[in-house]
Amino acid sequence: MAGFADDKTEAPTPRKRQEARAKGQVARSQDLTAAVLLLSGFITLGFIGPGLWRTMLAMTRAGLTGGPPARVEELFPFALAVVMEPMKWIAPFMLILFVVMIVTLLFQVGFLFTGHPLIPTLNKLNPINGIQRLFSIRSVMLAMVNFGKLLLVGLVAYMTMSGRADAIVHLFMFPLHEGFALGASLMFELTMWMGAALLILALLDFAWQRYRHEKDLRMTKEEVKDELRSMEGDPQLKRRRKEVQLRLAMQRLRRDVPTADVIVTNPTHVAVAIRYDAETMPAPKVIAKGADLVAMRIRQIAIEFGVPIVQRPPMARAMYESVEVGEQIPERLYQAMAEILAFVYELEGKSPARRKMVGSGT
């Protein structure tokens, strides 16, 4: 297995990344989400806490001094007030935490919705695989990292509270509201320092998760070749298909070029075979065309069968770029084609009726 892992030297392809993402295999740190929620929660609580405290204190005083509702019809408004007044502060707090959680998840993995991790598999249900994962090197390393986090958090808590030891010892001597305020202040300070330490660890964990995820996605050279074959087809099959297509194209050239009236060339890079019959065609038609090797083959067949070859580079390029095989030439090329055909027919002594072109004016 180690040798197999060492063979994964190639970066994952976009398709491999997409398939892994569809299965829910993404780089994500749960510690980062927890640390951000902890910090944002206590920061938010620092702003809304005093208002929530005053509301709860006022409700307590009202309940203790005014007593419970005397009549049944007053019970529902009283209970509604007990619930709704704190909710004015708690609802924004929960909404802020929800938004922070969503933003943190989007920062890590982007928008992703998949139910694939919920699908039960035999590997997850196999107790042997579970025991192997429990005692794997990765599990041992995870346990050591968690123990290190615990030590760091304990050290931060000790350093934070050691400087306030006198205040903590004499906390019982303060009045109730002052003692509560001091305790809340100490708790807020402790939580902020612990949250900052956890956030730093979480960012390191996120970097490690991305590195490990990238390493797990790496592929062997054979896997890359197999994926390219599946996406583009077997290279041998593609080569055979190209050979067959080329052979069929050459057969068509062998069949159609001898029937042409003229071959218009560039003179060497492009060749276009033209056929025209005034009695059956409204305009000359391209029956074959090609560039480079195909153009050379068209000229060879034309020479073999005595088809005239005329060098007209602008005309050849215009027809090669704008007219497909089997299509008639556009009207803007009628005049130039009429001159070429007239020249060819004059050389061969063909009937003037063959030279008549619809719309050419000749």
Description:
It is a single chain. The protein has a four-stranded mixed beta sheet, sandwiched between helices. The two termini are 82 Å apart. The longest helix has 42 residues, at 176-217. Strand 1 and strand 2 form a beta hairpin. Mean pLDDT is 77; it is low at 1-5 and 351-362. It is built from 14 helices and four strands. It has helices spanning 2-6, 14-22, 30-66, 75-109, 122-125, 127-134, 137-162, 165-169, 176-217, 221-232, 235-256, 293-305, 313-322, 334-348, and strands at 262-265, 270-275, 285-291, 309-311. It folds into two domains: 2-229, no CATH class; 238-355, secretion proteins EscU (name from scop), CATH 3.40.1690.10. With 362 residues, the chain is mainly α.
N-to-C terminal Cα separation, in Å?
82 Å
The strand line-up of the biggest sheet is 3-2-1-4
Number of strands: 4
Beta-strand content bin? 5-15%
The value of Rg in angstroms is 42 Å
Which whole number gives the mean pLDDT?
77
Uncertain stretches of 5 or more adjacent residues: 1-5, 351-362
- Global structural class: mainly alpha
Main beta sheet: 4 strands, mixed
Query: How many H/I helical runs?
Result: 14
Instruction: State the domain count.
Output: 2
Shape: elongated
> Helix fraction?
55-70%
Order of helices and strands, N to C? HHHHHHHHHHHEEEHEHH
Short summary of the structure?
The protein has 362 residues and is mostly helical. 67% of the residues lie in helices and 6% in strands. It contains 14 helices and 4 strands.
